[in-house]
Amino acid sequence: MNVPVDLKYTKDHEWIKIEGDTATVGITDFAQGELGDIVYVEVETLDETLDKDEVFGTVEAVKTVSDLFLPLSGEIIAFNDSLESEPEKVNQDPYGDGWMIKVKIANPDEIESLLDDKAYTEIIGA
To answer: Which pairing describes strands 55-61 and 8-9: parallel, antiparallel, or unpaired?
Structure first.
């Protein structure tokens, strides 16, 4: 199970890469493995400002549809458009080409509530 040490995580199986006041968000290797083959990623909240834990989109797999929860309050400033035609990138490279959104962080204090790699590894039992 791939859990990079330089990222933050949520109990909802999302990863967050913090770069200044911007966070890149995707789902973890564990999450994509549990979902199975991803066939569609929908994000209709581009340019919207949402609160932490609000739904920012959905990911649809062959077996199920799951909501995506925003890990940090802020404005969604980018969506990975390549996922519209190649949603399988989330399965193939969840921490790279499979990223989903970029968020302009509204409240940096919320970063402290995110999990580190060790805490996330405990949650998934890896």
So the answer is: unpaired
